[in-house]
């Protein structure tokens, strides 16, 4: 059954817009919390199960591998049934995976944790396709990157809370070698998913359809979506950039606790977990700072600048030991902040009838987090955790190439500006000016009638 015709974000009243924006933003907290716990569980399971760093990254492989497998399915599902049903499916899978952490902890089965993490990842992949896409199209394209950064800022808040809880319960005293507390934390996570599912069931969420989005951009003379999906190169290369960036981001976070505790400056695992939560807080602050900047600066240009900074500081983390290295790690987290939302909004811009499919492809890029952490952990096992931070550099470099390429493409087309602009408003103005010029060049109806009369008069003679 196809979704209802729907509307566009710009057609919603201020009250309905605020309600829809707030409700969907609440979803970002759910996967931020799950993601924040994931990186801490890496180090915890190394202690409990006596496994290597490489083996512990099976959690990342399951979590982000789920995005690679399930995000395209979620995009197709929402194209057919709409955003709201996609959100219900995502929250259901999220809660189901979290509930099964209980028996996995009860019987101390590491494989069970990996399987449950995959199910949670499928749920979160669905939610990301829905929420990221919905927020991106919920209003003017000019502020799409700023809106998504603001919403994803709450993901950062949850990512900060996750490691903070872990540092208090997972690594303290007898809990350093037990799984009991993991059961209760994930039971609470499952409960949160159920509550949100019920809320979305009873709430009226406006459906924004691809047909309405296509009509909106066609009205101002933008017809990019008339080409086939596989010729939407901004989106295709956006998937590559997202794969590389998320892989780098996840790799940086997955061994952060190990990195911090191995610097020889008196940082144990509980302290490292606490510092990691402050790294996530730095990331979150960077998101909200990015919201302010993106109101005025072109997203492609800002992404290029932040990408170059990520390349620089990932190298400094890998090469400089001790306290300066810890400081560079915090700085790296700050400059990571805007990258994911900017890549998403740039990659899905003006997709029209391809919006949901394109969103699924970009979110599929999160699967890069499945293979970067094992690669980094393998290097860490062979050398040191510090030197393993050379691996994320390659991901940041690929992402920066995409951002710089977007800036060059805009410059070649003569549409690049350092300042952020509203393409729809600009398109309407350009369209109106073209119509005026056409009207000046074309004869008026009065002159046409006179010409007809003259012709008839000549013929009569």
TrEMBL record:
The reply on keyword Transmembrane is yes
A Pfam family matched in the record: MFS_1
One MF annotation (Gene Ontology) recorded for this entry: transmembrane transporter activity
- Where are the stretches annotated Disordered? 429-461
Which UniProt keyword terms apply here?
Answer: Cell membrane, Membrane, Transmembrane, Transmembrane helix
Where are the coiled-coil regions? none
Pull one GO CC term from this UniProt entry.
Answer: plasma membrane
State where the protein is found. Answer: Cell inner membrane
Give the protein name, as stated in the record: MFS general substrate transporter
Query: What species is this protein from?
Result: Macrolepiota fuliginosa MF-IS2
């Amino acid at each position: 059954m196809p979704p209802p015709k729907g509307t566009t974000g710009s057609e919603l009243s201020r009250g309905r817009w605020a309600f829809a924006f707030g409700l969907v933003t609440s979803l970002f907290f759910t996967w931020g919390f799950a993601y924040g716990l994931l990186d801490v569980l890496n180090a915890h399971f190394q202690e409990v199960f006596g496994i290597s760093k490489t083996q512990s990254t099976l959690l990342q492989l399951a979590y982000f591998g789920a995005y690679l497998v399930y995000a395209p399915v979620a995009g197709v599902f929402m194209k057919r049934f709409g955003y709201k049903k996609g959100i219900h499916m995502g929250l259901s899978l999220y809660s189901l995976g979290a509930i099964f952490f209980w028996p996995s902890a009860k019987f101390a089965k590491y494989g069970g944790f990996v399987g449950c993490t995959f199910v949670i990842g499928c749920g979160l992949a669905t939610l990301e396709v829905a929420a990221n896409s919905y927020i991106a199209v919920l209003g003017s394209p000019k502020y799409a990157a700023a809106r998504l950064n603001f919403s994803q800022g709450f993901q950062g808040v949850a990512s900060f809370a996750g490691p903070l809880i872990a540092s208090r319960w997972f690594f303290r005293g007898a809990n350093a070698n037990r799984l009991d507390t993991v059961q209760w934390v994930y039971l609470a996570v499952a409960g949160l998913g159920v509550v949100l599912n019920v809320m979305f069931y009873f709430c009226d969420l406006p459906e924004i359809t691809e047909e309405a989005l296509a009509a909106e951009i066609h009205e101002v003379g933008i017809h990019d979506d008339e080409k086939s999906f596989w010729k939407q190169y901004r989106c295709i290369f956006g998937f590559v950039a997202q794969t590389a960036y998320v892989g780098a981001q996840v790799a940086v976070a997955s061994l952060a606790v190990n990195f911090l505790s191995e610097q020889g400056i008196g940082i144990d695992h509980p302290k490292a977990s606490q510092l990691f939560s402050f790294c996530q807080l730095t990331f979150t602050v960077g998101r909200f700072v990015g919201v302010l900047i993106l109101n005025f600066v072109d997203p492609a240009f800002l992404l290029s600048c932040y990408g170059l900074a990520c390349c620089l500081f990932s190298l400094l983390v890998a090469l400089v030991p001790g306290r300066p290295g810890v400081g560079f790690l915090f700085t790296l987290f700050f400059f990571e902040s805007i990258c994911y939302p900017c890549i998403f909004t740039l990659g899905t811009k003006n997709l029209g009838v391809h919006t949901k499919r394109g969103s699924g492809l970009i979110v599929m890029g999160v699967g890069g987090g499945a293979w970067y952490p094992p690669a980094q952990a393998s290097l860490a096992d062979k050398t040191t955790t510090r030197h393993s931070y050379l691996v994320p550099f390659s991901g940041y470099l690929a992402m920066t190439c995409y951002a710089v390429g977007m800036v060059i493409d805009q410059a070649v087309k003569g549409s690049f500006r350092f300042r952020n602009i509203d393409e729809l408003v600009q398109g309407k103005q350009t369209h109106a000016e073209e119509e005026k010029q056409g009207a000046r060049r074309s004869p008026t109806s009065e002159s046409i009638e006179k010409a007809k009369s003259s012709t008839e008069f000549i013929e009569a003679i």
